[in-house]
Amino acid sequence: MFTSQTSSFQDSIDVEERDDYDSEEIAGYSQKIQLNCYYTIYLYQGTSLTLIDSSLPSEAEPELRTYISRRLSKGALLGGMGNIATVELSIPEQAVGCYCCLLEQERSPEQPDADGNGYVICFMGGSEKGLNLFRLELDKYVQGLHSSLQTPELQNLETEVRPYLSRWYEESVMHIHRVVQLVQSNISFLLHAALSHTHVEVNNSDERTKADVSRFIKAASLQGLSQQDTTAASLCKAMSEDTHSDLIIDCSTSPPTLSNNVSNRFCDDWNQAFLNAAERCNPFLLRQILENFKLKAIQDMNSLKRFVRQAEMSHYALFRCCQFLQGCGNGDVLLQNARAEHSDLPEACSIITVLEEFLKEQSQAQA
Asked: Which of 225, 287, 294, 324 is the most exposed place for a label (fewest CB within 10 A)?
């Protein structure tokens, strides 16, 4: 059992050694080479596309416009929903990941037939597979442009729209990388905080850093993914009310100083994978590692639920529970979540209490 469990964990954490995100399509990412990224915005009226602004080379933009026109004619671009694909353009990368989104204009009484009219926003950089990891962030970023596009004839193009479009990669993709670079080997404390619903407070920093850390914690948490999300939300609320348990990041020092920092063996084991990906300046690999981290945590959580159900009827299953918790390195977090999810099941709660006492005894023995 321990051999297969260790092997499964190693498979998850070794994504950087075997995954497509470390193949030729991202071989150019390093500390010295900056990824080329581009944007384009079109006005869409009826069936025609009019170029408003683009950072693409002049020979590549018509190729993109042809591609977008073809997608629109097939109804492949739905209002407000991003579409990601690989496009071949006259740029150094030749084939590149392309995110496209149609922002439809709000209909007015004067233009009742304005359905489908609006703006098409395109972001290009990295690979299709890489951009798909940041689909939600890209969708949200494009929506943030909505108010700026209400100005007649886009008189705010140079002051608002162009600078906003130019920052898409930094704002939508690089935030995880910035957080890992900020806290370095302390990233395990943030991972533990995310899994345990611990509130994280960032002091003496700019707003961007605070937002980056908040987004990292949200991306690393399992809230919204567990089967009993209401109890997870209740646990999150209870933890946030306990200010003594807050993880404090003080950015007045370099590197930042962390207080009330808690981790475990499971989170510590992922440290090096994050640091390696950050050193290579590979945000797509970083996001894949983060997703693998969450997947492994969910798998262990489901295993514990199964063992707890079995332990209600079998002492041997209870013994297997203890073995599993001792081996996974994430027992404190798993039991915390299990107690929240089984709060209305007395028999399960009694099993969890026994397991908590077992972990406590193991911890004291090791100390």
From this structure: 225
